[in-house]
Amino acid sequence: MISSFSGPADSGRLTILTAGFVTCLIVSNIIAVKLISVGALILPAGVVIFPISYILGDVLTEVYGYARARRVIWIGFGCNLLAVCAIWIGGLLPAASFWAAPGLESPVESQRAYDAILGFTPRLLIASFLGYLLGEFLNSFVLARMKVASKGRFLWLRTIGSTLVGQLADSGVFILVAFSGMVPMLVLWQMVITQWLVKSAYEALATPLTYVLVNWLKRVEHVDHYDRMTDFNPMKWQA
Questions:
Q1: Cβ–Cβ contacts within 10 Å for residue 12, how many?
Q2: What is the CATH number of the domain that holds 198?
Q3: How far apart are CA 193 and CA 39, in angstroms?
């Protein structure tokens, strides 16, 4: 068992996991503007991919430790902020006189469509960023502490338990910050509980895949980190 960050822990596999984490985060934020109907449930389309970021976050913490996961969380935050800034600037730039998006007839209509789909309000951005940071850091922290407490046993309990905590924080902060005063409080809490349960169930169903990925990485990387002496300060960058 290796619990340092030297050698194999810096392999290309960690880079691939980081890229997957960041991609899931950015794509989920873009497609979340669409609401989908799943039976009686109304959910943002981002629910189809956002929980994967939690699965990858679990894998990162379980194999490489909290400090590595913390760095990836901040990388995801920075990349998402860059994407938001690029989309915002793109919306501000003047449209070409001949530009017409498919199905639309004029630059004015196309610009409205761009703003409607890709535009962000400051309140939604703040809610999204706060929910993401709090949820991801809690998810990683709880999993790391549970791993030490359980001596590395019951991976399924650690991944599901940490997800329940992280996703509740994420969903609760995002919905309450984004929609308080606009939606009745009872409806707000119903939205929180619905998203929390759906996202958590998503990860629970993916537990077999998580086991396969975790066990494979531990075997090929020769790394199985335990956060016994870790500084859990979320603002720290150094591993």
A1: 7
A2: 1.10.1760
A3: 16
Contacts for 225 with CB less than 8 Å, ≥ 6 apart = 2, 3, 5, 9, 63, 64, 65, 68
Q: What local confidence, expressed as pLDDT, does residue 147 receive?
A: 96
For residue range 202-230, what is the model confidence (pLDDT) as tens digits?
Answer: 989 999 999 999 999 999 999 999 999 99
Number of domains making up the chain: 1
Tell whether 117 is covered by a domain: yes
Residues 173 and 165: their CA atoms lie apart, in Å, by 12
User: Which tokens in the block code for residue 34?
Assistant: 């669409």
- Rounded to an integer, what distance in angstroms lies between the CA atom of residue 126 and that of residue 129? 5
Per residue in 96-148, pLDDT tens? 888 877 877 788 888 888 888 888 777 888 989 999 999 999 999 999 999 99
Asked if residue 26 belongs to a domain, the reply is yes
Domain that holds residue 48: 7-221
Residue 232 lies in a domain: no
Question: CA 209, CA 55: separation in Å to the nearest integer?
Answer: 9
